[in-house]
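Changelog note: in this version the structure field was regenerated for every chain. One regenerated record is shown below for reference.
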Amino acid sequence: MPLKSYLNKYLRKLSSSEREISFSSVTGRYGKFTLYCILGPKENIVHLTLAADKHRKALQQLSSINPHISNRALQMKDFPYHSVFQDYFSGKLSDFPISVESPFLQAGTDFQKKIWRCIKTIPYGTCITYKRLAELAGSPKGSRAAGTACGANPVSLIIPCHRVIAVNGLGGFAGGLAAKKALLVLEHAGRNSAISPGQSSC
């Protein structure tokens, strides 16, 4: 089912529950990191990324579904998960106590969903290769497709795709390689680990 269908389904669910169909977007700056988030009703995270262009595209996809959808810019101080991400980026938090209901997640292909589930099992402070990720998802020859699925991840950090690297380097990352390397260094430092971002712990 295409993304538009899942977005419509999500909006119908909100309408039937008599919730206001409104979204909030917030840009949060945490040291060297910039986080872009879209929140739905009940403070539900719909989309989360470190890439501004990916954030803009998600907002456009939401607004194109229904002209009555409102989106307001939320100040960082009013972001309900500000303290959670502040703790993560300061090395105090290794696991996000956040559940998400996202049509962007639901619209993933079966393979993408399998890859995203596998990524969620990668422990904090460790990393695996795209090749190993594909093997875990049952597609030993699908390392390239696994990389594409990582790039399509709609909730960065909560699904920690930055922990997936290439055999001989960092690989790609929607938020930029500098951010990916910094995230890995942050997590390794948080665990007092000697693993370098260019290596796999698995």
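Spot check on this record: DSSP finds eight helices and six strands in the chain. The helical segments are 3-16, 52-65, 82-89, 103-106, 110-120, 130-136, 143-151, 177-190.
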